[in-house]
Amino acid sequence: MPYSYAMPVNSEPNSRPLGGVLNTAVHLGHPFGDSLVRPGQALLVDGPLACGKTTLLRSFAERASEAGYLAVTATCSPSERDLPFGVVSQLARGAWKSPGGPPEVPGLPDILHGAGDPVDQAEIARLCHRLCTSLIDHAEHTPLLLAVDDVRHSDPASAHFLLQLVRRLDSTRIAAVFTDDLSLPSSLPLRYELLRAQHLRRIGLGPLAPGQVAEVVVAELGETARRHVGDICAATGGNRLLLHTLLSDYREHGEARQTGYGQSFLSCLHRNEPIFLDVVRALAVVGSALPAADLAWMTGHEPEPISQVLAALTGAGLMDEGEFRQEAARLSVLNDMPAQARRTLHQRAARLLHDQGRPATTIARHLVRAGQIPDSWSAEVLLEVAEQVAVGEEASIAVDLLEQSFEQCPHEERRAVLQAKLAEAEWKINPSTATRHHAPLYGAVRAGRLGLPDSVTLLMQLLWKGGLSEVEGLLAHLREDPAATDQLHAIEAALTCTYPWLAERRVAPAHHGGSAATRAAVWPRAGTVLADVLTGGQSHHTVRRAEEVLRELQLGHDPACHEQAGLFALLALVYGGRNDLASAWCEGALGETGGGPHVPMRQAVLSAARSEIALRRGDLAEAAEQSRAALTHASPGAWGVAIGLPLGALILACTRMGRHEEAGFHVAQTVPNAMFKSSYGLHYLYARGHYFLAAGRHQAALADFLLCGELLTDWGLSSGCDPVPWRIGAAEAWLAQGNHDQARILVYQQLSRPHTDGARARGQSLRLLAATSSAKRRPQLLNEAVGLFTEQEDKYELARTLWDLSQAYHALGEKKQARRTMRRAWHVAKMCDAASLYEEWLPADNQHDATAPTPKSDTAIERLTHSERRVASLAAMGYTNREIAGKLYVTASTVEQHLTRVFRKLDIKHREQLPTELYVDRMELA
């Protein structure tokens, strides 16, 4: 392996650097003409940690032995610095105890056996003199190489011996080789004697340059590994030991490992002064670089030696200005650290980072890993950190921190507050786990130990979980509390959204919240917006307020009920027919801050909202996928009474996709009884009604639809936006039983509503009204419904309406128009995965009928230009040339020319053979 050399510090001729590759230039034979070191000279190998000094020293000793020298070696260690003559003992075993070695020195055996250690400087000087004389005399017959590794760690008595020997070296047949790191301080006189000696040569070793690293990598791993040279340089800093072990790790496992790279890193630290390990352990705990002053506070050392350690680590390539080059090294340091030392460092890191105003999430991680909250931390600071963490995506860290604080807190009132915050943090992960706190918190509210904000948060959790008896008791308590007056409107609004039968209709305060505390909370205003939609319908004012709520949630406001507030605001938009806005919020700003894996309930709520939006757009596969995601992010038990929303969407999507067996499986799942007393139960009942309708159980379906209406009437919500179009469902059930009169009554009731349910409900009503009207009137009603569904982008309802329209044309004898419309209906149903429709319209044994499209390869379709594809798409949906021309603002002749080229490229003869892959939705054609 090649070595690099540094220029010497002094300018004496014998301090010149050496050129060439060192491991081919070590010569100690006789005569000494061109050798690196010869008798009477000393060689100092200087360099940072793990840069090859020890390897070079061993190479000198091996070659010296081959050349007939008596080579004796010793390794110094910081842990043996207090052992008198520890280095001398190693040299003695190699010299005086070897066959043919110098005669035994008086007093030496006592030292080797650990007895009779010298106690004063005079005795040390006399013994050192005898040792030097013995070696010098023996070297007259047999040349001697003395090699001492890490000489700065030698004990003072041994250093005294080496100092005497170096002073006499130029008149002897002894060569001495020492290794040291001159960048680190040393109080031994030996170093300075060496540096001023005329007979000293120096070799400066350092990390390998990138080019040298590349040579080693290619030699070890082959030419194909050259692309990894940059990463390997960054991971090793050119350090020889790290490079060697990293290449071994790559060769055997393909990545850096703690047992290889990490252990080599650790070995470098353990071979040096304890301050190295202390500093690196502190950096491993913090996980990032720190100034020397901060490290001094964490470790108890002075800043100056810490700065020297940091410089040495960087110079050796082990670290990069206080940053770990590889995570395997940091993990190895952490795993090597005693548990108590690690906890202490985490406590100190938390205090340091808190005093510096660092992010609460970072501080909380250290407090959690400290294992026990130090007494110096005030409860207020802990709550502040926990609340800040809970706002973001680290709810699990907040849980661990609050759990520790709660267990250690001796004060009853403070414990109640901590438990409330703990339940709030656990709620974000899994509401089911938070229920264990509800009983004691309920008792704390009744005993007056819990404040109003925490009491209201507890009420919201109880509403979600369906704890009706506790909800009623807590409501009674709050309604009797004068301090809760300003909050009661928000509470009643939330009840309207969840358990409308519990709500007492109250006049809203003039400024939506009264007190500053109420105005600052987002979820009460979200509940108020949704309650206003349910009671009075959608308006521009409610849309604006819903978006204000979502905008504040995007900024991280109101962590206590973020999930419910977001769901309330999104449902307010959905119920009012603003699927476009709701979808934009889900996929845009809210989706970017949806919580991820650390806040599963937030992600679950977003998925549930997406599934409801997809259903109302007729995107059945998307609705099913998002519903499953909602039930995966949070288990059915975690959803509480709100399970009706994602489960209902999944049942309805599966039913419309023709997956009746799967839909039946979900219908058979157990749901909480309290769900049927909540507004979320309406979604479930409506979906189950459609499942029953598809299964031919018309009476059961009718009962579910009518129950939705009865509940809304009992709750006083019959004048606002219906969460589900139950009248349409009930009318379909009556039609399935052949009762057109009852169906017509419900349809007229729906049409007479003051436009609270929007264009989608009107389109559904017109489709059913056409089913109960004369043949001549049907095309007019159905064409109007087609326009409404096209505008709303509801593909499922559009497909059903187009099919009815084709049947109406057929009944009037307009065969060509009927055929075009039927083809368009089939395409739209196929596009939205409504197998329950297109399989019924085109049975399996008639798949090759003229109405069925001809499959074409993607390559054939890709040959179409953008304009050709736009025209072909509309033609595939059943539009005439004139209708296509009107939509695309071109002439009918242009449309005809485009279609001629399309037929030729796709190798078909007429438009009935156009493939379904050509379908694009209205937004793409705009």
TrEMBL record:
HTH luxR-type domain residues: 857-922
Cross-referenced Gene3D superfamilies: Tetratricopeptide repeat domain (1.25.40.10), Winged helix-like DNA-binding domain superfamily/Winged helix DNA-binding domain (1.10.10.10)
Signal peptide feature range: none
Entry keyword Transcription: yes
InterPro entries: AAA_16, P-loop_NTPase, Sig_transdc_resp-reg_C-effctor, TPR-like_helical_dom_sf, Tscrpt_reg_LuxR_C, WH-like_DNA-bd_sf
Key word Iron present: no
Keywords recorded for this protein, A-Z: DNA-binding, Transcription, Transcription regulation
Highest taxon of the lineage: Bacteria
Gene Ontology annotations of biological process type: regulation of DNA-templated transcription
GO molecular function: DNA binding
Record's protein name: Regulatory protein LuxR
UniProt organism field: Streptomyces violaceusniger (strain Tu 4113)
